[in-house]
Amino acid sequence: MAKKVQTVFVCQNCGYESPRWMGRCVCGAWNSFVEEKVGEDKHDSRRRTGRTSVTESGKTSSGRPVPLSHVKSGETDRIDTGIPEFNRVLGGGLVRGSLTLISGEPGIGKSTLILQAASNIAACCGKVLYVSGEESEEQIKIRADRICGNLSENLYILSETNMENVLTQFAAIRPVFMIIDSIQTMYTENLDSAPGSVSQVRDCGAALMKAGKENGTPILIVAHVTKSGELAGPRTVEHMVDTVLQFNGERSTTLRILRAVKNRFGTTNEISAFEMGRSGLMPVENLSESLMQDMEDGTEGSVATAVYEGTRPLILEVQALTTPTPSGFPRRQAIGVDIRRLNMIIAVLERHAGISLANQDVYVNIVGGIRPEGTSYDLAAALAIYSSYIRKAPPENTIILGEIGLTGGLRSVQFTDRIVSEAKRLGFKRIIMPGKNAARFRNSKKPTVTGVSSISEALHLIG
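Predicted structure:
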C-alpha cells in the first residue's frame, strides 16, 4: 500500500505546523513558513520515547508506573569526559540516557572539544561512536592525530547522514557514548523534505532521543548557529534536549567560553573556559586571573567588576570610550553588554550625574569575550563611561559592582561573600558595592569594602 503524503506549512522559527500558509506565525514571526511534505505513518515507533527504568532492587520496568522512591538515581553514574572544565559545565559529567546539544560559530572549536572528550571516554569507559555528516573519516583522523595522540580501539568513526543507517550501526555497536556532527546534515527517509529543514531536524532529534533513553546512552549533537549567533532550526529541538551548551569566543584571542544555557542535571549559566592551542583545547582553571592579566591600573575608562557565573565568581574588566559624534545621531555600541541595558545606564547617568551624552558616541566592551548574565556589572559600566567622559582614571586596585535602578539607587547583588574572597585572592585592595551588601563586611580590612547607596554617591569616589 502506497504511503500517503500530505503537505504542511512549518514555521522555521518555532516549528509550528499549519495546514495552510500563514503570513504571521503564532510565535510572532513574519513570513517564516516553508512548505514540506510529510508521509503518514500511524505506526511510527519513534513517538514512543520512554526509557526503561531501573529500581534499587535491580529490576527493570518499561511502560509501567513505579514508585519514585524505588527508582535508582543516575546522579552517581555519570560518565567522566576526562576534561574537568567540560564536566563542570555539564554538572559533573554526562548523565546516561541524556541528550546534549552544543552550538557555536564555525571554527570556534566544537569538533575539537567533543573529539577530545570522545577519545578520553573511549580509553576508559568503552565504545564511542562519532557520526559525522560534514567531514570524512580521513579529515577526522588528521585532527585526532594532532590533538589526541594515541587513539583507542574503542573510538569508532562513521561518515553518514541517513538517520536509519546511523541507528542501525548504533544498535550493532552499542556504544557508551555517541556524537552527531551535525544534526542539520541528518535526514530520515520518512520525510521528503531536505536535510536541515524544520521537520527533518525535529524528527531526527526525536529518533536520537528515543534511542539514547531506551539504551541509557548519552548522545551529544552539534548544531549550527545563525548569523545573529542564535541556535538554528526549530525551538522544539532546544526544548527536547536535556542540556544546551553554547561555545563562544573572539577570533582574535585563544580564549573560548563554554556556557550551559539549559541543564536538567546541573546549574544553568555555568561557564567553563578553554584556551585554543596547537594540541587542542586546554582547560583554563583560573579564569579571573587570565581575564585580568592585561588590565592596567590608572587608565581612564577601565573598571574592574565582578559577576557570579554558575558556581564561581569572575573578576572582569569593563572598558568604555566616549567621543564626540561627528553627526547628529550618537552611536551606542556594546560587546558583552546588552544594548538595551546600556541605553538605560546612559539615561540614568544623564539624569543623576548631570552630564549630557546626547552628542557623544559611547562604546562599552567587556574584555575577553565574556557575556555575563545578570546586572551586577551596571555600576562598573556607568563609572567606566563617566571616567572616559571626564577623562579621569577610576581608583586603582578597586572592584566596583552593583545593579542600577531607574531612580539612580543601587540594588544589592548576590554571592558577595564569594566575590570578596576572589578579590582577596587576586590582590585587590578595595571593593565598592551597594550599602546593603557592604553592611556584612564592616570589619573587612583586606580588601576594604565601601558601601554606596546611589550612583551619585559612587561617582563622587572618582571626582
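Summary: Residues 41-49 have pLDDT under 50 and may be disordered.
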